[in-house]
Amino acid sequence: MPIILENISVFYSRNTPLEIAALKDVNLRIEKGEFVGILGEKGAGKSTLIKLFNGLLRPDSGRITVNGLDPSSKKVKSRVGMVFQQPADQLFCRTVYEEIAFGPLNFGYSRKETEERVFEALEAASLERSMLSRDPLSLSGGEMQRVALAGALALRPDYLVLDEPITGLDPAGKKEILETLKKIKGQGTTIITVTHNLKGFFPLLERIVLIKEGRISFQGSRKEYMETENVPLPPVASMMRELHSRGIQVNPAVFTVEEALEEILRVKLMIEKEKAEKERAEKQTEK
Ligand SMILES: Nc1ncnc2c1ncn2[C@@H]1O[C@H](COP(=O)(O)OP(=O)(O)OP(=O)(O)O)[C@@H](O)[C@H]1O
Ligand SMILES: [Mg+2]
Question: Residue 169's pLDDT is what?
Fold first, then answer.
């Protein structure tokens, strides 16, 4: 069953001079098994949107259901795993083990079942067992991010919701998180991630939701997104669009450096072939 939002509005500081409409009349449907990217500028409403998915925030108007249920129900809370924008904010236990075990214990699983889930989540998040006794706050940014991820995975969620999971990580840390998410998605988990890192995430995204000033300004497949004007693109896709607009016959709907290289080399070969044919034709007319 999907996540369905109908005519959702969310306000902060309602009925005060500081009132802010963070989401305005949002309609959205996220199907199970998708890899969804939520994009938008700072303050667009991205974090507000995802906090609705597990009932952390309640809408001021409209309706949201997850698998047909109210998101603040206990059943939904255990099905939706969340990793916040600042992982350090969600780590509060003394050891990595306690941190990952917190969710399953809280939802009433036995010590034994919990232990199984901790080891499973640890492996899924590409963490070493030797890390289990460490203080979570002594870890590097990338490791903290993966401990928070393991904590969410220990509930074996249907939906994994992440807020900027690779921001602030070094290239190796980014790559590891992206690989991990790809693996988790391959196991059937729906992944919804807020990101402004199009370079890293774009190849993974199947559907894109673009938020602008609290409203959804685009939702659709990556292909549809690529065909839309005035949307943020990964740098390599912007470059390909620019080359295309300058008359170089590359396919502009390319979003990885590898594909761009292949495409540019294809055009180079095509130009060389045309040139050789032209020269041959000229030589024949000379004869
Ligand atoms: N707790 C809060 N109290 C008051 N206003 C808030 C609160 N949280 C968010 N806002 C405001 O609501 C709007 C949407 O915020 P939100 O955090 O959802 O944006 P965002 O797209 O996640 O931004 P960013 O990219 O900076 O994380 C912004 O104008 C923000 O200042
Ligand atoms: Mg945010």
Answer: 82
**Alpha helices (H) in the chain, listed in sequence order:** 46-51, 74-79, 96-106, 111-124, 141-153, 171-186, 198-201, 222-226, 235-245, 257-286
Residue nearest to atom 18 of ligand 1 (CA): 45
Nearest CA to ligand 1 atom 25: 42
Note the CATH number of domain 3-232: 3.40.50.300
Distance 68 CA to ligand 2 centre (A): 26
Q: In the chain, which residues have pLDDT < 70?
A: none
Query: Cα(138)–Cα(163) distance, rounded to whole angstroms?
Result: 22
Task: Decide the pairing of beta strands 159-163 and 80-83.
Answer: parallel
Distance CA 82, CA 55 (A): 11
**For ligand 1, atom 16: residue with the closest CA:** 45
Q: What pLDDT score does 253 carry? A: 81
**What is the pLDDT, as a whole number, of residue 112?**
96
- Quote the ligand 2 centre to 212 CA distance (angstroms): 13
pLDDT digits (tens, 9 = 90+) for 46-87: 999 999 999 999 999 999 999 999 998 988 888 999 998 887
Site to substitute for ligand 1 among 46, 49, 192, most atoms within 8 A of C-beta: 46
Segments making up each domain of the chain, as ranges: 3-232, 241-286
